[in-house]
Give the backbone structure.
Amino acid sequence: MNTPGVYMMCIVAPMSIGHALLGLLEGGPRHGYDLKRAYDERFGQDRPLHYGQVYSTLSRLLKNGFVTDAGVEAGDGPERKRYAITDAGVTDVERWLSTPEKPEPYLQNTLYAKVVLALLSGRSAADVLDTQRSAHLDTMRELTRRKSDGDLADQLICDFALFHLEADLRWLELTAARIDQLAVEVNR
Amino acid sequence: MTLLRAEGLSKSFGKTQALDGAGISIRAGEVVAVMGPSGSGKSTLLHCIAGILPPDSGTVHYRDQDLTAMNDSTRSELRRTEFGFVFQFGQLVPELTCLENVALPLRLSGMKRKDAERAATDWLARLEVEDVAGQRPGETSGGQGQRVAVARALVTAPKVIFADEPTGALDSLNGERVMHLLTTAARETGAAVVLVTHEARVAAYSDREVVVRDGRSRDVEFAR
Amino acid sequence: MNRVIGDLVLGVRLAVGGSRKSWTRLALQGLGIGLGVAVLLFAASLPSVLDARQDRHNARNAVSEGTGPAPLLAESQSHPFRSEYVRGTYLRAMSPDAPVPQGIAKVPGDGEVFVSPALADLLATPAGTELLKPRFPQKVVGTISQAGLLNPRELLFFAGDARIQPNEHGNTVYGWGIAHEGGGMDPLLWLLSIVGIVVLLFPVLVFVGVATRLAAAQRDRRLAALRLVGASASRVRLIASGEALAGALAGLVVGFGLFYAVRPSLDRISISELSAFPSDVMPTTALTLTVVVAVPVLAVVTSLVAMRRTIIEPLGVVRDQKPVRRRVWWRLVPVVAGIALLVSQAGKIGETDGRPNQWPVVLGIVLLMLGIPVLLPWLVERVVFLMRGRTPALQLAVRRLQLDSGTAARVVGGVAVVLAGTVTLQMLLAGVEQEVRADEKKQANFNYLTINPGTDSDVNAIAAALKSSKGVTVVHRIDQAFGTLDSGGHIAINIASCEALAAQGPVPNCTDGKAYVVPYGDGQPTAQAGDVLTLRHSGEKWTVPSSLETTQATFPGLVLTPAAAKGLVAFNSQYIAKLDPSVPDAAEHARNALTVARPWQVFTYFVGQDDTAEAERVFGVIRRALLAGTLLTLLVAAASLLVVALEQVRERRRPLAVLAASGVPRGTLARSLLWQNALPLAISTVVSLATGIGLGVLVMRVFGAEVAYDWAGLGLITAIVVGLTFAVTALTLPSLRRATGALGLRTE
Ligand SMILES: Nc1ncnc2c1ncn2[C@@H]1O[C@H](COP(=O)(O)OP(=O)(O)OP(=O)(O)O)[C@@H](O)[C@H]1O
Ligand SMILES: [Mg+2]
């Protein structure tokens, strides 16, 4: 595991692992080990989750009433406990998906997780993208306004931000264009 | 005040359904970006609401006139007097000088050559391209040509300017400059702008955006 | 070497290209060049046609001297029929091995006749049966074959007649076929034919050049692109040559095809002098080779010259730059030189006898014709640059032409030469026609037939037959004699009553006993009162009466009323039959009545209202032929203009679509197309009319002829040009409509 990966994880984890797990549970009750495998498969790539992370997140969700115990599967070990999502959990996922991320650099992971989860749960990924674009554009409009009123330094700073935000949106557009392809893959 | 309102627009080309119940509404003086993936029907929507292409079904109202019910020449006339157009490239008549290109719409509505060219010179100056006035489009750079095109779209003081990827062929600096000049001039003259683009930085010059996907539009204003 | 061939082949491939557009272009080129090649081949056949004619003409000449008794007697005679002449010979074989004339199987026996196919046709017509057949009572035993005819429409006969007697003026024939020392062509006619050939052929050459450049704009752009990509100038030239060659070769194929397709119908041309036996129409080997070599060379050279700019500044073609201004001075050289040469020759033909110096004239005409296509691009450019375009439509057209007037000017340059040539020919024709008509007018007051019976004919029988002929009102007799003046000059003496004189022309206060002298036109000495003449046939002396008046009657020489001619014995008699103008074809009836005499002994001459319908027909045919030629070239030119226009619409698809989208009415765009086609055509029409008229005036001055204008013809040409302009524009409209639809806005 490399350092930037850990660094990223630290930024991303608190914001989205919970929602990601919730989203995965929407497909039906699973036990912790299953959840970790599903998460790693979809979002883990080169930074798979620790068991510890999974269970600490699940216990937080349990505490908040977003998941419940769904009985223990026959077998041994604590990992055989199954969790199911509650109505409150579904509402939380919904809220999370329809809330655009604050436009800022390096939010691909969250956005990606949102898109995949929307697809997994049969929600409209395009809506997620449109909502995000709208939020991005609002910020960009603000920056553009600042730019045209400001001096050269302002312009340069604004342009920096604008180009990065644009890159996000570009990626969003690309994802949107590939959404059908993605849907097939995600639901395989 | 809603200036232009289109509802339930459908248009197919053979088997391709380019528009499938799209709608949009434009208020006077606002700049609306039309965004969406390639092939989603943005240009087709623009052509339909500008009265260039008759839709298969649906209505387009400009003020209280129904564009879909007009005949070709009335629509031409409306486009000439009320609308302005900017496209991605190749819109200037290659054999006319830039000045004559800008003066052309005025002359077509019967203005005297001298007056038309004076007005055209003013607009070229506003768009910072007065020095290419005597040149042919082939002898200008892409950015200069696009500014000349913007000047031509604005010279008749239109109520709506339709721009389809106006910066598509320009680099970012030129693109932004053209957008800045276009939106500033439009705001000054009170013209609404319908801006088709897939570039966020260009769309950022708008007041709001409309997203087209698979021939359907999501117009936040319209939904309300 | 391989590279060279490779480049040439690449050019050919580009020309043939496979796409529909390149095939269309090749087809147009082929048709244009092919038309030119066909005309050139016909011109190249002219020497063979003339040679064959001359050969057969020589074969007709009788060898009148020989040893022993003549095997054959021959009397040639022409029978005028309306305004045509039926030529022929009456023959009497004196021995079984009498020489048979070319074209017939045997010497016709007494009462037999061979007729040419055209004469057979004529005799079969109702008019021929009624009015000509009586003069051919013989039994038709065969037709004269090609070997005996000068041209397929010649009216000719060989009749057998046993009444022919050998006589002292040599009607004996020992054989056929002898080359006569030809007097050569009338210098005037000769010049006229040269003018005609130059006027006809020159445009053909120009046209071949123009056809090579059909739809060249697109090709130029392609070659410019090649050049920009890095092809060297010489390689681009080779590729361009390859393209031109492809067109020229296609043209040669089409040309030979056309030539062989048209050739068989040449014998159906109704003017006999213009008709020819198809088998005679064979281009000479040398000239054929010249055509086969010259046409591709011309095509390649024109194409290379026209490509100059593309090769030097390829970017200009790609970027639609303002072209370099054309310079005028060298373009004026041919025109000025041509006019100077022609002016220097004006009126000279009448002065010098013998053959005039034709070279300055021919050279002048060629230079003037060459001047048109050379000057036209400059002129179109100048005119277009001076225009600013009052309406947007006109402005669009003018600006377009300013950017590239060359293409259009080249196309119309070819037309202009053809038009100028046609106008010149029309004027020459109008001049000739005017003279013919003036003669007719002069004769319109008269209506009589003069009859000259041979010396040993039965004059009384002739007079009686004439008197009883339909439509003959009076028959006058005029006696004739010849006198020798003391000075040695000869003078004709006519003895006629006042009525007889009045039939021929106004003789004021004529009373019997008056004597008149009519001066010879060429200033030969005439008799004066009191002169003593020696009569030629008898040697007697006769004194000219003292009361001699000068007048302008028909016959030059001395004209005496019977009382003034006392003591003068006539040597010969002539009849004048006055004809009733209300009886149609009275002259033909009178001529038929003359069959009481031996047909070869009576000569008639008709003075009066000729059958103008015939003149009308001849001029009509020539005019129609001219018109057809003009129309054909104009059509090809219109096709080229159409290609140019279509290409421009296609090229400017996007701006046109944007203009239409911005609400520019289609009508404005259509009008701009119309102007764009009309301007070059209008300029070239004006230039060619001016040149044609100017050339016509100059040439007629050279001939000393009276200048006449064919306004109807000029009007017709102008109308055709206007019509074609509209037609071309109309044909461009569908593609304009397509380009200006919303689809035009889509990027390709
Ligand atoms: N004239 C036409 N003939 C056939 N199909 C057409 C035509 N015009 C548009 N289409 C189709 O309609 C759909 C929408 O095209 P449109 O040009 O409106 O897309 P767009 O959103 O403008 O795309 P882009 O961003 O690439 O310009 C496309 O699938 C296109 O192929
Ligand atoms: Mg488009």
Q: What stands out?
A: Chains C and A do not touch (no CB pair under 8 Å). The radius of gyration of chain C is 34 Å. Chain C is about 55% helix and 15% strand. Chain C has four domains: 1-61+182-320, 68-176, 339-444+611-747, 447-607.
